[in-house]
Write a structure and sequence with these properties.
Blueprint lengths: L2 H16 L8 H9 L4 E5 L2 E10 L2 E11 L1 H18 L4 E4 L3 H7 L16
Parallel strand pairs: 3-4
Antiparallel strand pairs: 1-2, 2-3
């Protein structure tokens, strides 16, 4: 599938996720990151996600930064693909930033809280 077709399929799911993401990016910002290869676009007919590879001196990890759509598709189809791909990229772990419901949904898959993000609007 071409990038344009994948983006057209993914955009509605990602727009809904962005509405919950705190206003850090617009949909066109996400598209530009994915089109330039700075982020990875994962799509399925009923879900979409965007990941970033982060690297520190002692660790590479795949960050699931944005995800939207049907939870069974995200967890049952897309997450295993992303995990497998992350291993091929030398990633040591997969992180997900999201609302508290993600923690409950991912616990049966072996995911556990690593830290809490605390924020204040200025």
């Amino acid at each position: 599938m071409s990038f344009e077709a994948a983006w057209a399929q993914s955009a509605p799911h990602l727009a809904a996720a962005l509405a919950q993401a705190g206003g850090t990016h617009r949909l066109e910002d996400v598209r530009a990151l994915a089109a330039d290869g700075a982020a990875q676009l994962w799509c399925a007919p009923r879900a979409a996600a965007v990941t970033l590879i982060e690297a520190d001196p002692c660790e590479r990890r795949l960050l699931v930064w944005l995800a939207g759509g049907e939870l069974p598709t995200l967890l049952g189809e897309m997450l295993p693909r992303a995990e497998a791909w992350a291993r091929t990229q030398g990633c040591r772990r997969l992180l997900l930033i999201g609302r508290p419901g993600w923690e409950r949904a991912m616990k049966p898959l072996g995911y556990a809280p690593l830290a809490r993000v605390i924020a204040k609007d200025l």
